[in-house]
Amino acid sequence: MGRKGLGPAGMGAAAMGAAALPPRPAALLCVWLLLGSSWGPGPPGVGAVPRPTATYVLDAGSGLGRQFDGIGAVSGGGATSRLLVNYQEPYRSQILDYLFKPNFGASLHILKVEIGGDGQSTDGTEPSHMHYENDENYFRGYEWWLMKEAKKRNPQIKLIGLPWTFPAWIGKGENWPYDYPHVTAYYIISWILGAKQYHDLDIDYIGIWNERAFNSKYIKVLRQSLDRLGLRNIGIIAADGDWNISKEMVVDPYLNDAVQVVGAHYPGTKTVPNALLTQKKLWSSEDYSTFNDEVGAGCWARILNQNYVNGNMTSTIAWNLVASYYEDLPFGRCGLMTAQEPWSGHYKVEAPIWITAHTTQFTQPGWSYLQVDGHLEGGGSFVALTDGLGNLTIIIETMTHNHSQCIRPPLPHFNVSPQRATFYLRGSFYLVETLQVWYSRLDFESANSILFKQLQPLDVWRGSFSIDLDVDEVYTLTTLKTGRKCSCPEPPPPQPFPSNYKDDFNIRNPPFSEAPNFADQTGVFEYFINGSDPGDHVFTLRQVVVQRPITWVSDADQTISIIGNFHWVNLTVTCDIYIEKQDDGGVFIAGRVDNGGIYVRRTKGVFFWVYADGTYRVTGDLAGEEVLMKGLSGVRANAWHTLTLNIQGASASGLLNGYPLWENVTISKPSNGWAAIGTRSFEFAQFDNFHVEAS
């Protein structure tokens, strides 16, 4: 027999309601009603508590709602998976399993990746497949690898590509990708074709330009170009910002035909009339973006349901997939899970993973929502979906206002209170006798949340059942018996970044184009084979972006890649450097670097620069405006030199080729930060034998 009650209400009591009970004597029924209509025990020592009751009817026969398109997450926008690739096995595969493996963890239906464009896109840059017009390389970066790993675990997962930035040649001197729409379309389609040719990846959807202006002409050109190449199955999502494109779509039938999905970001669970008039799929194509604690989980639980209940959105995609970037960069830990320590192997399966599982493990793209108002009378929401073959899944959330605020937009106040919900199953669902039950309760007092726990099955009596709902809970009630909460072995404990770290970049066939743990913040630093050097510098790290890309945010005018522990105070950085740009070229090594990501232009630290004209500078900022020391160094382009920067307390000194060049420079701020390397401008330069020692 199934369950007729779920333990104490503090554990989420579910009970059979009056409509679900067999006939009983009238006197007994009166006593039961007076005691609060609660079937099953209340909280310990409290007894039954009266709850307001509301009824909801689920019937596929009265018509279906929109088709469900899946739940997904974004890798990129940018460099959010940067550290993931550096994890050793088995930990890397465990993380990937939690994200993508069906009936295991998050079991995502959709993976959206950044089409790297060499520019800063939130937490770093991602390399383009075409740095220059005549350059093509479909093995740069890690998104190709990530898509293949996702497909390996779930062959049905949908893949989306979206650019944040573009290489400079697209704009032909302008910071704008739309002046030459055929050029931009060629660039994007090259990425799609490269995914298939080199990685056997079929891209399902393509975007326009993340959260920036859309261009109707470009969208039409892209659609025509895709169709001409036989890529009609690839849908265009537009415009990955607000809903404004729908205004044009309803008056421009050619634009409307070109777009398959109207995608909005952070819509606050609401759509607009024009979007509905397009008669297109409506998605929240980026959402969440919230610190992944219990409040982040509450945000995610609420919008996963209410994006459809309030806004008719049939897909919700989280930014970001996994917080695998240095936590002190912008939006630290805003992923569904956290994996930011490849050097230790430590990772954490955060609460949003299990909130995701409440939907993804019991639905699939192609299922349909039932046509029902999903607002619960006591606050909260529910959605009901069916595969059309008799299966039914109901997801209920009762997130309270203060425990479900997303990072944006502001959340209007609302109330949620304990309640009883009685569901009547009609039509083909009337035959359902038992529902599997999965339960989560977010605990904001003692941090003892219950996450994705399987409870005893719930009996359905003559097509109805009741369930007692407390606040900040999630229930999945389903006919499917395939749910699973995986429990991999515990990962290793957390450890800080190694205080003594070296990299000589001596690798002939690297698995990835970027050296481990370096996080590019402006420019792109790639492994390089220096065929012209017969000596010790055949294998190096090279900065390869030589023109400012079409930017998404305010990239720095200098290039920079950070590494290490943000909390480092005293450190010595040593690196061999090679300036390639004659006359006005220059490079730096740095310590106590305090910023990156979208704030990279305001980065402070201790920067030791040498220039091709034979001079040097010490500055307190990346922009080079705060000069602490300057003089002659004798450094020239096209020769290797060794720079050493030593920072101890309030004093810094620098060595060139092992000999003191400057010393006793007073440092007042910042007090801590990463190590870094970089260049004076967008220019070629090489680095080798990097070493940092911190205390």
Automatic annotation (TrEMBL):
Signal peptide per UniProt: 1-40
Gene Ontology terms: biological process: galactosylceramide catabolic process
Subcellular location: Lysosome
A Pfam family recorded for this sequence: Glyco_hydro_59_C
Top-level taxon of origin: Eukaryota
Residue positions of the active site: 211, 286
Start and end residues of each Glycosyl hydrolase family 59 central domain: 369-483
A single cellular component GO annotation: lysosome
Domain Glycosyl hydrolase family 59 C-terminal lectin intervals: 520-694
A molecular function GO annotation: galactosylceramidase activity
InterPro entries: Aldolase_TIM, GH, GH59_C, GH59_cat, Glyco_hydro_59, Glyco_hydro_59_dom
EC number: 3.2.1.46
Reaction catalyzed: beta-D-galactosyl-(1<->1)-sphing-4-enine + H2O = sphing-4-enine + D-galactose; a D-galactosylceramide + H2O = an N-acyl-sphingoid base + D-galactose
UniProt keyword terms in alphabetical order: Disulfide bond, Glycoprotein, Glycosidase, Hydrolase, Lipid degradation, Lipid metabolism, Lysosome, Signal, Sphingolipid metabolism
UniProt domain Glycosyl hydrolase family 59 catalytic: residue ranges: 68-361
Family that this chain belongs to: Belongs to the glycosyl hydrolase 59 family.
Name recorded for this polypeptide: Galactocerebrosidase
UniProt source species: Aythya fuligula
Name of the gene encoding the protein in the UniProt record: GALC
